[in-house]
TrEMBL record:
Domain (Glutamine amidotransferase type-2) ranges: 2-244
Keywords assigned: Glutamine amidotransferase
InterPro entries listed in its UniProt record: EgtC-like, Gamma-glu_amide_hydrolase, GATase_2_dom, Ntn_hydrolases_N
SUPFAM superfamilies: N-terminal nucleophile aminohydrolases (Ntn hydrolases)
Name of the molecule in the record: Class II glutamine amidotransferase
Transmembrane portions of the chain: none
PROSITE patterns reported in the protein's UniProt record: GATASE_TYPE_2
Source organism superkingdom: Bacteria
Length: 276
């Protein structure tokens, strides 16, 4: 499958999460500890927002393994953002090409996915035909992940993210079962409009891929008052990850099965995810 992370908080260089932690995203591209595959070398990408930048987020995506891309290392060292998503890919059957690397972008929205639509080659026609005709020309790749994104957009992602993703999941399951696929959907999803970050953990069989969120910063400061990194970041800083980036005790909380959450200014939210 894949590994991804989403960061929201005090602006930092991308390398602080992509390269520096013990189990950084780049380390996970070679040595994933909790993924289906140990190696995630079928492409990579990052998308980030900056207050002074363009209205749409900036994308950088490649087709090779993330661990060997010198341009990614240079970019991560020199680019700062207070909200970014990053992804390393392990293909589930679609080609390794730039348009299939995550994140996917539409307007201000970014989308990353770990998982799959089972028997996607059988379901693809019915799923793609349900995409809003106005959105269809923006479909650039051939992955199930991008089709999920455009279905969520079709069902209202830009106005009501939670119901839209629930409708997307319910529609994929309905189409899958029409084709005799017992457990059609496996997903953890991260998506953002540049202000908030939503995370979703769900699978049709109830055994979803791992997903974690960082512990409240104020609680971590109380546990580790001498930690310089915790002193530098804001109280509202959060990281959502496929698997923890380090082994600091108490720093990572597992997202429950069949759940959604949103990282935002003020109180974050967590609830039960129910496909519609």
């Amino acid at each position: 499958m894949c590994r991804w992370l989403a960061y929201s908080g005090t602006p930092i260089p991308l390398e602080e999460l992509l390269y520096k932690p013990r189990y950084s995203l780049i380390d996970q591209s070679l040595h994933s500890r909790m993924g289906v595959e140990t190696t995630n070398g079928d492409g990579f990408g990052a998308g980030w927002y900056t207050p002074e930048g363009p209205a749409a987020p900036t994308l950088f995506r490649g087709t090779g393994p993330a661990w060997g891309d010198v341009n990614l290392r240079e970019l991560a060292r020199s680019t700062c953002s207070g909200l970014f998503l990053a992804h390393i890919r392990a293909s589930t059957g679609t080609p390794v090409q730039q348009t299939n690397s995550h994140p996917f972008r539409y307007g201000r929205w970014l989308w990353v996915h770990n998982g799959s639509i089972r028997e996607f080659h059988r379901l693809k026609r019915d799923l793609v035909l349900a995409v809003d005709p106005a959105l269809y020309p923006s479909l650039a790749g051939s992955t199930d992940s991008e089709v999920m994104f455009f279905l969520a957009l079709t069902f209202g992602l830009q106005d009501e993210p939670l119901p839209a993703v629930e409708r997307m999941a319910g529609f994929v399951e309905a189409v899958g079962r029409q084709h005799g696929v017992e457990h059609p959907l496996q997903m953890t999803v991260g998506t953002s409009d540049g202000d908030r970050v939503w995370g979703f953990r769900y699978s049709s069989e109830g055994r979803s891929r791992t997903l974690y969120v960082s512990t409240d910063v104020t609680a971590l400061r109380a546990l580790y008052p001498e930690n310089e990194t915790l002193r530098r970041i804001s109280d509202e800083t959060r990281i959502v990850v496929s698997e923890p980036l380090g082994e600091l005790k108490g720093a990572w909380q597992p997202v429950p099965e069949s759940s959604w959450g949103v990282v935002q200014k003020g109180a974050d939210e967590l609830g039960t995810f129910r496909p519609r």
